[in-house]
Amino acid sequence: MNTCPLCHSVDLVHYHQDKKRSYYQCPTCMLVSVPAEYYLSAADEKAEYDKHENHPEDLGYQRFLNRTLEPLLERVTVDQQGLDFGCGEGKVLSLMARSRGYQMENYDLYYANCPEVLNRQYDFITLTEVIEHVSDASALLSQLNRLLKPNGILAVMTKRVRDLAAFTNWHYKNDPTHINFYSEATFRWLAEHYGWRLEIVDNDVVFLHK
């Protein structure tokens, strides 16, 4: 039986089928997910990430990350401490923040696995193109809630589900490491569940204020 990775509902509804995977939607939190049988092994997952070439000098990648970083830095102060969760091999976002005087730590399961940085709290946490990769969505959000100080900001970048017609031809679902797909309704459910305030910043950026 499929269970929602976010709210643990067992009433999932078949949403879409393509040549490679099945997709189900939760009627409670509206998350669209793929069953665990489609998850890659850790080695295969890392092999996919190793194909990425997100270098600090890549101006196009910097512009991409700036759609999260710029509005975030407008809402925090230089004396506050941040964490880039799922920073990737290049740790680009934290380098960009540090170049502007902001302090950020890095954590990544594969590229910056430093558990000690998860033993303290932060004023802001960035999660850019990460949340869609994490299988246990419930555990991830609970962990981020613990890591975030009161009045802190969780900045999430991920492309959002719009509707079934758009999903059918959506390139984003074709990445085998993308297993959970969030919509605006899902983020509204999250905000209500945790008592956060949702701020829609961009087409694929939301801020959750604790």
Summarize the structure.
This protein is of the alpha/beta class and 210 residues long.
Describe this structure in words.
This protein is of the alpha/beta class. It has a single domain (13-209), classed as Vaccinia Virus protein VP39 (Rossmann fold), CATH 3.40.50.150. The protein contains 6 helices and 10 strands. The chain has helices spanning 42-50, 59-73, 92-98, 137-147, 164-168, 184-194, and strands at 13-17, 22-25, 32-33, 81-85, 103-107, 122-128, 148-157, 180-181, 197-202, 205-209. Strands 5-4-6-7-10-9 form a 6-stranded mixed sheet, sandwiched between helices. Strands 1-2-3-8 form a 4-stranded antiparallel sheet. Helix 2 (59-73) crosses helix 3 (92-98). The longest helix has 15 residues, at 59-73. The protein is globular.
CATH superfamily grouping? Vaccinia Virus protein VP39
Strand content: 15-25%
Number of domains: 1
| CATH architecture label name | 3-Layer(aba) Sandwich
Give me the secondary-structure category. alpha/beta
- The helicity comes to 25-40%
Give the number of DSSP strands.
10
So how many helices?
Answer: 6
Q: Spans of 5+ residues with little confidence (pLDDT < 50)?
A: none
Could you tell me the radius of gyration in angstroms? 17 Å
**Average pLDDT, all residues:** 96
The main sheet orders its strands as 5-4-6-7-10-9
Largest sheet: 6 strands, mixed
